[in-house]
Design brief:
Length: 303
């Protein structure tokens, strides 16, 4: 079972607090010790756009100093400018191993969130992906609103598959389907994943170098664990999660009262373990990481 820890990027990006770079470095260090497979450490979006992650260069510079052998780091990259910044910090050796780009399966959400149609966003990826591959980087592509859209309702599985096929044709290594508003039910998971596996068979293998299908769940309505169980039963073997549940739902509530966003790593690990699978995460180390993550944003434990 692969786990990508997203607290330092997706988590902190969606928390109101601005965390010191040194504290982020410590969070990544404690997350590395848990045994997760990959950490999405930051984002190379325009610093003014996401002030929480404006220190991407400094953080990656700090992480480069004592990155553990075999650890995989990824970073979000919205465009060529972002990738150029990443390649610059990678120029003394590959600190970041993978980039993540993002589009959506809902036309309305794409327009409102990235100010482009799905088509336009994929067209923009092409040079970014080409340049990333030339730089020896792997590529993850997020598909937001892959199950339910806040504006359009349930998303047709065929639409998700169509977007995923176009991304795979561009050479991405990983398709990451996201329940962006945490509204997916196990039934939504079943219909979309079944269609993806049916059409894109090879992407169920999760070996490095083979296309991988990852599930990015939010626990906004408390159904993430049930969705994990459904996905596991269908053969999904790669999940994203955020230690301490960092990253509230950007579409509901505010501050400490915000609705949950990213599924907490502790809930994901518990669900995987209870279903009889192993994910190689050390529960004591994870407890430490969970506490560290919550302390950073002074957050109450998630239920
Ligand atoms: Mg998320």
């Amino acid at each position: 079972m692969r786990i990508t820890e997203v607290a330092p990027r997706d988590g902190l990006q969606n928390e109101p607090a601005i965390v010191a770079t040194e504290s982020k470095r410590q969070l990544v260090r404690v997350l590395e010790k848990t045994g997760v497979d990959e950490i999405e450490v930051t984002s190379f979006v325009r610093p003014g756009r996401v002030p929480q992650l404006a220190d991407a260069e400094q953080l990656v510079g700090m992480l480069a100093a004592d990155k553990p052998e075999g650890m995989l780091y990824s970073a979000l990259v919205p465009n060529e400018q972002g990738l150029e910044r990443l390649l610059e910090v990678n120029s003394d050796g590959p600190v970041i191993n993978k980039i993540a780009v993002f589009t959506a399966a809902s036309e309305t959400f794409a327009q409102k969130n990235i100010n482009a149609s799905i088509d336009e966003s994929i067209t923009r990826f092409r040079p970014v992906i080409d340049m990333a591959r030339q730089g020896g980087l792997m590529v993850r592509a997020y598909i937001s609103c892959a199950f339910v859209c806040p504006f359009e309702g349930p998303v047709a599985p065929a639409t998700v598959t169509h977007v995923a096929a176009r991304l795979l044709a561009l050479g991405v290594d990983e398709i990451d389907v996201a329940d962006t508003i945490g509204a997916a039910t196990p039934e939504h998971i079943e219909s979309v994943i079944a269609e993806l596996f049916h059409r894109l068979g090879p992407c169920r293998d999760n070996e490095i170098g083979d296309p991988c299908l990852t599930l990015h769940l939010h626990d906004t309505h408390g159904s993430a664990a049930a969705c994990v169980r459904k996905a596991l039963s269908m053969g999904v073997r790669s999940f994203d999660s955020s230690a301490g549940g960092l990253g509230g739902c950007p579409f509901a509530g505010s501050g400490k009262t915000r609705a949950p966003g990213n599924i907490a790593t502790e809930l994901l690990v518990r669900t995987i373990t209870e279903a009889g699978y192993r994910c190689g995460v050390d529960s004591r180390r994870l407890e430490e990481a969970t506490k560290a993550a919550r302390d950073l944003v002074a957050r109450e434990p998630t239920p």
